[in-house]
Amino acid sequence: MNRQKIVAGNWKMHKTLEESQALISEVRGIVRDEYRGEGKVVLIPTFLALPSAVRLLEGSGLLVGSQNAHQEDQGAFTGEISAGMLKSLGIQYCLVGHSERRQYFGETNEVCALKVKSVIRHGMKPIFCIGETLEQRESKQYFRAIEEQIVQGLFHLDRKEFAEVVVAYEPVWAIGTGLNASPEQAQEIHAYIRKLLANQYNEEIASTTSILYGGSVKPENAAALFMQADIDGGLIGGASLKARDFIDIVKAMR
After folding, report:
1. 10: Cβ–Cβ under 8 A, 6 or more apart, which residues?
2. Does residue 113 register a pLDDT over 70?
3. Residue 13 CB neighbours (<10 A)
4. Considering 70, 98, 122, 190, which one is annotated as catalytic?
5. Considering the chain, what is the average pLDDT of its residues?
6. Which residues are paired to 157 by β-bridges?
């Protein structure tokens, strides 16, 4: 079985409801007119826009993801949304462990592990985010950092559960900075991730798991990144807020 190619746009905390609806409709129209590939396209707007996204993308082939989900099914957790609630909207994907959640909201690998389990239990696919800081990169500790996040965040899953996981490698030093890992640097980490998966599970799971790259992906560098042997698409931040840029990245999927 071939690995699924995926480009997902993470809008972060951007766009009002009206602006979101306009961008969703614009992306849908351009994908319909211009994209003939077989890769999956996922839009990940704010919670505010999720119901609109599900409605506006119905029948289009485009999918909808959430930026977060709480690890518990329900309870006194003011301001949070559970995986079950998201599933009831028709959401198909959910980000887990994005570096901004780890940095600003104190999410640990242990918390991320619980979130992954909840997302899978409710029938969605987690996009599990990992990546090293600039300090870890410069001190040559990046392999260790990546391994720790994967082992603690994912390896509690059995093979059937892990088959639902998408991994997204985002070097923290490249997110929103305009910097990006070279295609060769990104490929090195993606190949290492696949090796870890093979050692934990088996070669089949390793070879069929989609591993995305994120970190200042632009139309200008997308093709060079996506042509690498172990890079299966991208988790796109800033460029996903401009329909033309986002679609040009989508079209770089081969």
Report:
1. 44, 67, 95, 98, 214, 235, 236, 237, 240
2. yes
3. 8
4. 98
5. 96
6. none
**The whole model's pTM is what?**
0.96
Which CA distances in Å does 177 have to 171, 203, 238? 11, 35, 10
What does the domain layout of the chain look like in residue ranges? 6-250
Q: How far apart are CA 37 and CA 251, in angstroms?
A: 7
Q: Assess whether 170 carries a catalytic annotation.
A: yes
CA gap 164, 120 in Å, rounded? 7
Catalytic residue among 100, 107, 132, 170: 170
Burial of 163 (0-12, 13-18, 19+ CB in 10 A): middle
Residue with tokens 């003939």: 36
- The residues that bridge with 167 in the sheet, in sequence order, are 128, 211
Over pLDDT 70: what percentage of the chain? 99
Q: Extract the tokens encoding 158.
A: 């059995």
Topology of the domain comprising 6-250: TIM Barrel (3.20.20)
Measured between alpha carbons, how far apart are the two ends of the chain, in Å? 16
- CB-based burial label for 25 (10 Å; 0-12, 13-18, 19+): middle
- Contact by Cβ (8 Å): 236, 27: no
How many Å apart are CA 30 and CA 151, to the nearest integer? 39
Q: 19-50, pLDDT tens digit by residue?
A: 999 999 999 999 999 999 999 999 999 999 99
